[in-house]
Amino acid sequence: MKIVIISAMVEEVKKIKEIYHSQLITTINNQEVESFKTIKNEYYLLNAGIGKVNAAITTTLLIEKLNPDLIISIGTSGGVSENLVIGDLILADKLCFHDVDVTGFGYKSFQLPDEEQYFKINNLVWLEDRLKKINIQYHIGTIATEDIFINDKKKKN
């Protein structure tokens, strides 16, 4: 299986690169792509750059160039749940754009025109099964994205 692990910042995949001694193989959208292999899979590590536009451009180019079987997006994020602590693993059961508001045209909060309010995750059960097999704890919840770093309590609320 060809698996891509993509992040916004270099720091977010640094440890994986060190542990698996990945090697530079190419660049996509001026971002370095590194690779390593295990017995069962080929892995590719790539930083997309910060923001949804960088993520969309780099991921699209990545799909065209590498045709992966699975893309795993990892990285630093903020949380609004009091039940989460730094380092928790969150699996998305659905995704939305927190900074989208076209409610004035009759759409729901976070909904893009002609799209569902939330983007569904199709392979959640597959991923949960694998995490359970290796005894990794995780939470399931909605992941909302926006190109803003929220750093004050008023905005968080």
Level of helix content?
A: 10-25%
What is the β-strand count? 8
Strand order of the largest sheet: 2-3-4-1-5
Overall SS class: alpha/beta
Shape: globular
% residues in beta strands? 25-35%
Number of helices: 4
Cα separation of the termini:
41 Å
Radius of gyration: 17 Å
Which stretches of 5+ consecutive residues score pLDDT under 50?
none
Q: Specify the biggest β-sheet.
A: 5 strands, mixed
Question: Would you tell me the overall average pLDDT?
Answer: 89
Question: Would you write up a description of this structure?
Answer:
- The chain is of the alpha/beta class and 157 residues long.
- 23% of the residues lie in helices and 29% in strands.
- The chain has four helices and eight strands; from the N terminus they run βαβββαβββαβα.
- It has helices at residues 14-20, 52-66, 124-133, 153-156, and strands at residues 2-7, 23-28, 31-37, 42-47, 70-73, 90-97, 119-120, 139-145.
- The strands form two sheets. It has a five-stranded mixed β-sheet. The chain has a three-stranded mixed β-sheet with strand order 7-6-8, with no helix packed on it.
- It is globular and about 50 Å long.
- 12% of the residues are buried.
- The mean pLDDT is 89.
